[in-house]
Amino acid sequence: MRPLRADHLQVPLPRRYSPKHRGFAEGMARHEAAMASGMLSYRDPVTGFTVFTARFLADRGYCCDSGCRHCPYEPAR
Prior knowledge:
The protein is α+β, with helices and mostly antiparallel strands. It has one domain. The protein is built from 2 helices and 2 strands. A two-stranded antiparallel ribbon has the order 1-2. It starts with about 25 loop residues before the first helix and ends in a 17-residue tail after the last helix.
């Protein structure tokens, strides 16, 4: 099993969700609010898609290798 990244609750992997991504600041604010309120997911401000939080993905206990935006695990080599 891959280890959790030290900053997994605050920082998404840039190749999955870059600060250059349209709506990044609002998306990260929604992620933070969802985690603070114990929600498992939030709605992306640009697409409207449901996005799982890093806490939910870490608590699940494994990486599904689906390219999740807030994947908490170290990238595969």
